[in-house]
Every structure is written in C-alpha cells, then in structure tokens.
Design brief:
Protein name (chain B): Sugar ABC transporter permease
CATH superfamily of the largest domain in chain A: MetI-like
Oligomer: heterodimer
CATH class of the largest domain in chain B: Mainly Alpha
Radius of gyration of chain B: 25 Å
Helix content of chain A: over 70%
Distance between the termini of chain B: 46 Å
Strand order of the largest sheet of chain A: 1-2
Number of domains of chain A: 2
Shape of chain B: globular
Distance between the termini of chain A: 23 Å
Largest sheet of chain A: 2 strands, antiparallel
Number of domains of chain B: 2
Transmembrane segments (chain B): 12-35, 76-100, 107-128, 140-161, 182-204, 241-261
GO biological process, one term (chain B): transmembrane transport
CATH architecture of the largest domain in chain B: Orthogonal Bundle
Order of helices and strands of chain B: HHHHHHHHHHHHHH
Number of helices of chain B: 14
Structural class of chain B: mainly alpha
Family (chain B): Belongs to the binding-protein-dependent transport system permease family.
Strand content of chain B: under 5%
CATH topology of the largest domain in chain B: MetI-like fold
Number of helices of chain A: 14
Largest interface: A-B, 111 and 106 residues
Order of helices and strands of chain A: HHEEHHHHHHHHHHHH
Helix content of chain B: over 70%
InterPro entries (chain B): MetI-like (IPR000515), MetI-like_sf (IPR035906)
CATH superfamily of the largest domain in chain B: MetI-like
C-alpha cells in the first residue's frame, strides 16, 4: 500500500521540491502558522490529560503525605508516616507478597503456554486455521464473562471440577474459600484470559523467523528441541521480553477478576494491590493510605514501563 | 518409502491429537458456559449437568427480566464515542508532534510519554473527586470524558506519522496546502492501518473497563455491560446459574463473531502496533 501511495504522490514531489528550495532561499517562512495549529491540534488532548492524568498524579503524591477525612480532604500532614506504616504493616506486606506471587505465576504461565500454542499452530497441516481461531478465542472475552465461566467451573457444589473430583473419589476442594486454592483459581482464570492475545503476538513473531534457518538446521540433522532453543528462542526473544513486560504490568493492575471471583478473600489471600487500594479508599474512606499505596504501585509499574520503552527503542534502531 | 509414509501418518495423528487437546483446554470454559445456559437452573443447582431438558428459557429470562440489552447498548455508546474521540484527538496531537514546529514541543512530548508509565488505577482517588465535583457521576460522560485523549494513542500514531516521507510535506507546503488539509487529505489516509488499530484498541479498552464504571455509575440507565454482569451476578439471582450463563453468552457471542471475521486483519494490525 505504501508503495502505491508513494507512486501516487511522486509526480508532485518532482515539481514541488525544487520550488520549495527556491522559496527557502528567498527566506519564506513556511512554518508561520504552526503555533496556532499547535494550539488547536494539541489543546484538547492537553486539557484532558492535565485534568485526568497530570493533576491526579501530583494530587495522589500530595495526599500520600497526609491523613484524610472520610471525604478525601487532607487533614494532618504526616510526612512519610503513611509509607512507614504501610511497609511495616504485615497485612500490606502480605498483599504485596500475594501480588508478586500472582504476577510472577501469571506471567510465566502466560509466556510458556502462549509460545506452546503458537508453536503448535505453526504446523502447516489441513484445518490449522480452525485451531488458530480457537487459540485466539479468549481475546474476545471480557473480565466479567471470564469470571462467570470460571466461577461456575470452580463452584464447590455444582461446578465441573467438583464433579470431576467426585467422580475420581477425591476430596472436594473448596476452590474459592481456601487461601492457596483461591490464589490458584484466580491465576488459572487470568492466564486463560491472557492466552488469546499472547498467542496472536507469538504466532506473528514465529511467522517472521526466516524459514531458511530451520531448513539449514534440518540438513545438519539438528533435533526439534535444538532448533527451538537455538533458532526460535533467540529469534523471538524481543517478543518474549515485550510480552513479559506487558503481562507483568497488566497483572499488577488486576482488579476485575479479583472483585468478581474472591473479593480479595479468603482471609486476604487474594487481596492484590489494586483491590486493596479500592477497599481502603472507597470502602473504608482511608484515602491517605490508599494514595500512598497508589504511589507505590505507580513506581513499580513505571519501572516496568521504562524497561518496555528501552526495548522499543532497541527495536527501532535495528 | 512405505515406512516413511507410515511414520508421517503417525506424526500427523500425533499433531492433531496435540492440537485437539490444547483446543479443548481453551474451549472448556466456553463450552461449559454455553451448555449450561440451555439447562434449567433447578437441575444445574442439583449438579445435573448432563440433562436433556434443553431450552432457550434462560435467554428469554435474560432478555425480558434483566436490563442486559440496555447494558450492551450503554457499553456500545460509551465505547463508540470514546473511540471516535481518541482517533480525532490522538491523531491531531500526533500530527502536532510530527509536523508542527513550536517551542517546547519535545518537552511536551516527553510529558506525554511519562504519563504512559502511570496506571489509571493509581489515579482513581483524585479522579473520582474531580468527576464528583464536576457533577458528572452516574452519566455516560463520566465514562467518556476522562478517556477522550490518550497518551498511548498519541504515541502510537506519532510512530506511524514519522514514516510518512518528508517530501510529501514539503510538496504540500509548496502547493499551499494548509496543515488542516495535509492532515485530513494525506496524513490520515496514509496511516489508515494504524488508525484502524487504534480504533480497535480504544473500543476494546473502553468496552472492557471495569473499575471506573463500577465507582462512577449507580443506575441501569448508564451502567455498561461489564458492571451490568457484576450486578446480575451479585443480585438476588446469584444462584440462577442458567440465566447468568445465558447473559454471559449474550455478551460474549457478538465479540467472538467480530473476532472471528476480523481475525486476519486484527492480527496484522496488532503486530504492527505492538512491535513497530
């Protein structure tokens, strides 16, 4: 398409470029109106971002140094007290620990299963498109639909897993009311939701690995697993990095599945960072501490996003 | 020779078996959900999942006794308007960053980039106070206005606009094309793939919003579908599994159809957007 457009506009260039050079020589300012346009073109975005991104960022930081009343108005300046209190509170550290467990497990499983699906779907056999469509299917699933599907599967009295364990004469597992199992249930549901998108991205990456590399390896008699670790893996490593960071960031922000499936329970076992912020701010009216937690969350996510930018930069240069 | 053929046949069988196992694992939640949506709730709650009392009753209940259609309509309005606004405002601001020369441009661009690092989730507390004081609570506008512009969209389109050959701009300057005309007649058509990608991305992001609408809408007239499902599920009907599954199916089927037909296009767009 780009070629076509270039062709379409080329004749214009032939006349225009010499003309422009002449104009520049006689000192014609082609950028005179830029300032007005800049104001018109950037104004709306700037206004929206100022009100809903720049201001709240500073406000959150400000609130994190205060105690607040139930309306969210700052009352007493407490310096770093909110931070110290949080980082020495065992419930907050537990929430942090739960979040890290969840984030790492979700990212690892998403990565491994995503690559596995993409690798399986790369086979050139009849009907493969059918499988590709299925593998990308969970991309169309929103958080509340996923939660309903999985809540039913994990339901201790009527759910599918219960029927399976009963059939196998295994003890019933109360998936969503026992701490460890609840965490596992939330992890499984999240990974399932992530798979569609991850599969599509990895599938695209695998397609772009030059075929001759595999052909050469085949001739040399290299095994499939050798080919995977010495050709596929290095060739798609930028994509692996990209997906890890995206998944890490998204998992740190998890809220919907937690709210629908466990509401942070049982016994705060799945009370992840964002859910805790929501509880402290909007259910307990503890805006100061919730703001402090928001700042900590923002710092963690910023670090990962910075890494992502670095990766993008690298991709652009080579 | 014969041996080889036998081996490849066995190989093929193995591959199909593997693919089928993976497909079934991915599909199980869908299949269970869809299947139970046709069963009477009384049987589901007794744990009878292999029943032959199949009917559309749950769908009829969902359509007639819950506001599910209204929820879908609300979500559509909100996502559609957000998408249009983001395409317009992200493309104009990306244009400014690429084709306009003005003081402080780079500084401003870095400020835009910096906001991409901050999760919306970490800013809900002041944002909630803002929309409350602007009297926007419980209305479509509260779910649209904060997302009219996006730093991510601006960044993505900027990357696309940077690929437009510089000669085109110079040529259009000579022909006396105003910035507005150059933007509308050349830049937008030239970058249409990226615009489609942004459209799909912004629509889906808005459609999947959960936390923000949950905090800011309290009535079924404006509630989008994600929070609508939450509402159905947490209300008196908590144990009405058949109806809940039918509602989930009503919500997910349109997206699956769009995904099915748009898959090829969407795949290319995603790869371009994500890995450029």
């Amino acid at each position: 398409m780009e070629e076509q457009l270039n062709k379409q506009f080329k004749p214009l260039n032939k006349i225009a470029i010499p003309k422009l050079q002449k104009l520049k020589k006689i000192g014609y300012d082609v950028n005179a109106k830029d300032k007005i346009y800049a104001f018109l073109f950037l104004g709306p975005s700037l206004l929206i971002l100022s009100i809903f991104v720049f201001y709240p960022m500073l406000r959150t930081l400000y609130l994190s140094f205060f105690l607040t009343n139930t309306l969210g108005k700052p009352t007493v300046f407490v310096g770093f007290n909110n931070y110290v209190n949080l980082l020495t509170s065992s419930t907050y550290l537990n929430s942090l620990k739960a979040t890290i467990t969840y984030v790492i497990a979700v990212s690892m499983l998403t990565l491994v299963l995503g690559i596995l699906l993409a690798q399986a779907a790369s086979k050139k056999i009849a009907g493969i498109n059918f499988f590709r469509t299925i593998f990308s299917g969970t991309m169309g699933v929103s958080v509340s639909v996923a939660a309903i599907f999985w809540l039913f599967i994990f339901n201790p009295s009527v759910g599918l897993l219960d029927q399976v364990t009963t059939f196998l004469h295994l003890p019933t597992i109360n998936w969503l009311t026992q701490p460890g199992w609840a965490m596992l249930a939330v992890i499984i549901s999240t990974v399932w939701m992530n798979l569609g998108f991850t599969f599509l991205i990895f599938f695209g990456a695998l397609q772009s690995v030059p075929k001759f590399l595999y052909e050469a390896a085949e001739i040399e008699g290299a095994s499939k697993s050798y080919q995977f670790f010495h050709i596929t893996f290095p060739m798609i490593s930028p994509t692996i990095f990209f997906i890890s960071i995206i998944t890490l960031i998204e998992s740190f922000k998890s809220f919907g599945l937690i709210d629908l499936m466990t509401a942070g329970g049982p016994d705060n076992a799945t009370n992840l960072m964002v859910y805790r912020i929501y509880q402290d701010a909007f259910l307990s009216g503890n805006y100061g501490s919730a703001s402090t937690q928001s700042v900590i969350l923002a710092i963690i996510i910023s670090l990962f996003t910075l890494m992502q930018f670095k990766l993008l930069e690298k991709k652009v240069t080579y | 020779m014969l041996n080889n053929m036998k081996k490849s046949k066995k190989d093929l069988l193995l591959q199909y078996t593997g693919l089928t196992i993976l497909a079934v694992i991915i599909l199980i939640p869908f299949l269970i959900g869809f299947w139970t949506s046709f069963l009477p709730t009384e049987e589901i709650s007794k744990g009878i999942l292999w029943s032959n009392h199949i009917s559309l009753n749950n769908y009829i209940t969902a359509f007639t006794q819950t506001p599910i259609i209204r929820y879908l309509f609300n979500s559509f309005i909100i996502s559609f308007l957000t998408m249009i606004a983001q395409i317009l405002f992200c493309s104009t601001s990306a244009y400014a960053f690429v084709f306009l020369k003005f003081k402080g441009r780079d500084l401003l661009f870095y400020a835009f980039l910096a906001t991409m690092m901050l999760p919306f989730e970490a800013e809900v507390i002041p944002n909630f106070a803002t929309v409350r004081s602007l009297n926007l609570l419980n209305h479509y506008s509260v779910m649209i206005i904060p997302f009219l512009a996006s730093a991510f969209g601006t960044f993505m389109l900027r990357q696309a606009f940077l690929q437009i050959p510089g000669e085109l701009k110079e040529a259009s300057d000579i022909e006396g094309l105003s910035h507005w005309k150059f933007y509308a007649k050349i830049v937008l058509p030239y970058s249409r793939i990226s615009l489609y990608t942004l459209a799909a991305y912004s629509f889906l992001t808005s459609w999947n919003q959960y936390l923000w609408p949950m905090l800011t809408t309290f009535s079924d007239n404006f509630r989008p579908v994600q929070d609508g499902l939450r509402q159905l599920q947490s209300q008196e009907s908590f144990n009405n599994w058949g109806m809940i599954q039918a509602s989930a199916a009503i919500v997910v089927i349109p997206t699956l159809i769009v995904l099915f037909f748009g898959q090829h296009f969407f795949k290319n767009g995603l790869n371009e957007g994500a890995l450029k």
